[in-house]
Every structure is written in C-alpha cells, then in structure tokens.
Amino acid sequence: MTQDSDTGIEAGGFATLTFEREMAAPLTTLWEAWTAPAARAIWAPPSPSVTVEFLEADTRVGGREISLCKAEGHDDVRCECGWLVLEPETRSVNYEVISSGGPQDSAALVTAEFSGTQERSRLVLTVQLSSLAQDMEAGYLQGYGAGLDNLAGVAERTMVLRRVIKAPRPLVWGAWMNAETLPQWWGPDGFSCRTKRIDLRAGGEWVFDMIAPDGTVFPNHHVYHEVRPQERIGYALHWGENGPKHADAWAAFEEMDGATQVTLGMVFSTGEEFREAKGFGAVELGQQTLGKLERLVLSR
Q1: How does pLDDT run across 63-86, given as a tens digit for each residue?
Q2: Which of 43-47, 101-105, 106-110, 185-189 has the lowest mean pLDDT?
Q3: How many CA atoms lie within 13 A of 265 on its CB side?
Q4: How would you label 181-220 residue by residue, b for 16+ Cβ within 10 Å and e otherwise?
C-alpha cells in the first residue's frame, strides 16, 4: 500500500506530510534498512541520476547524520539529520535541516512508526515541515515518496543476522578487525580462508579465497568504506578481485550488559541474488560464521 498526503504550504509556512508504505520484509529488516547508513545511502536518492554522499553518520540518540545529495548541473543539497528518538522496530524521531548553496531552505521534524511481523512490515512517516523557500512541499513529496518506494525495494532484498556474544565489545571488535584473526573464523563451518591482501581500515580491502570442505574455491573481495571503532563497519562485497559487486554490507556492535550484540546486514544488488542466497541457506551459513566468531572470542 502506498499513501502520501499533504496539507499545502507556501514559503515561510508550515505543513504536515504523511507517507505510508507496506513492505514484504520482516520488521527487523525494515528497521535495519531505515537506520543503517550503508542501506540509507542506497535508498535515499530519489532517482538514478542522484547520488547521496554521507559525510557523517552517527546513528544513536544525540548523534547526527550529514549528507550531500548530488545531481549533475545542480548545486549539492546538504541534509543534516539529528536523531532524537530510536526505539528499535517501533519508532524513530529526527530533525532534518535542508540547505542548497546558501541559507536553510527548510526544517522538519520526522517521525517514523514501525509495525509488522517476520513476514511483512509497515512504515508510517509523518513530516512536520517548516518551509523557508518556494516549492519545498513539492520537493518533500517527491523526494520522500521516491525514497520510500526505494526503501521498500531495498528492505525486500536485505538480509539481517544477529547474535549476542557473551564477551565485552572490545574483544569482539578485536577479533573482527584483526588481520590475523579475521581469516581464522570467517566463513561457515568447515570453510577456510586464504588471504592475498588484507587492510582493515576505511579505504582498505580484503582480497581472499574462501575454500569449501570439498576444495571448491570461492574468490572474494571486500572493500571497506567505513570503520567506526567498536561501533560499525561498512563494506562492499565483490565476486573476486575487481569482480562485480553483489552486496553492500555492514556490521554493527552494541553493548548489552557486558555482552555484545553483533548485527550483520547485507543489501544484495538485485532481488534475484537475494533469493538465490536465501535459497542456498545463506542465513544458516551466516549464523555458522558468527558462531565461529563467538567460539574464537570465548576461547581467548
């Protein structure tokens, strides 16, 4: 279901805009697609001719997100988002300030309410808009309308794995972001890794072969674009060195009373790739991989 509404607004005025979307994705997955910067960068552009570049992304209460919306022949549009409320899988509230080559064009309070099951989910978005420039209402309706349509597509090809490891976050992070230990546990049970190059920092990469128990070799290439120590990693997955990208991924690390919740998310490049991965057991194999991480951490 798609339903967008508005009240009408002129420059210097106010309006309340409402958007509703129902999606064929679990509630947990929708929440991750809404909040994870790696996923937001994919669905936020309203059209293929627009790209979104994140300059800052701190997804926690009190944190802010700064991005540039870029389109050839137009000034960059700067968006500052400040997170005020983050209630997982229930509600988020943020402020949003938009500017383009000069003073602020608009300010808004954005409230997102989530509901659903492990099969389907629903998002109701309310934007309380204060417009300081002409045509901002139309821009919001078009931008958010297209963005939420994109979000539905992204959520439906996103895979999310979670595991709580009974160890402090520095230990879990250290086992992941360590060139010696990462190859020891990466991959499902019975698989091993053969590293060609590894540089675990923003702008770095890991080029390696994952080797199945029967000797089958699967070339892999991870390209890291975000590393926030002990908080989040963002990277792209390629089929072998300089091969085609098949997913954008992130790993998030959250403290939980002395334990660490690890969330591994992947937005597959196409719905077909998502269905193929799910069909051959990627969820179960991914949990095996996180299980190997857990065993390594607890053995230390």
Answers
A1: 999 999 999 988 999 999 999 999
A2: 101-105
A3: 27
A4: bbbebbbbeebebeeeebebeeebbbbbbbbeeeeeeeeb
Per-position DSSP letters for 162-207, written without gaps between them: EEEESS-HHHHHHHHS-TTTHHHH-SSTT-EEEEEEE--STT-EEE
Q: What are the chain's domains?
A: 2-156 (3.30.530.20), 160-298 (3.30.530.20)
Going by C-alpha positions, the residue among 164, 212, 204, 170 that lies closest to residue 187 is 212
For residue 103, pLDDT over 90 is answered with no
Cα separation, 63 vs 57, in Å, equals: 8
Confidence band, pLDDT 50/70/90 cuts, at residue 10: very low
Distances (CA, A) of 172 to 34, 86, 148, 245: 25, 24, 34, 27
Tens-place pLDDT, residues 248-293: 999 999 999 999 999 999 999 999 999 999 999 999 999 999 999 9
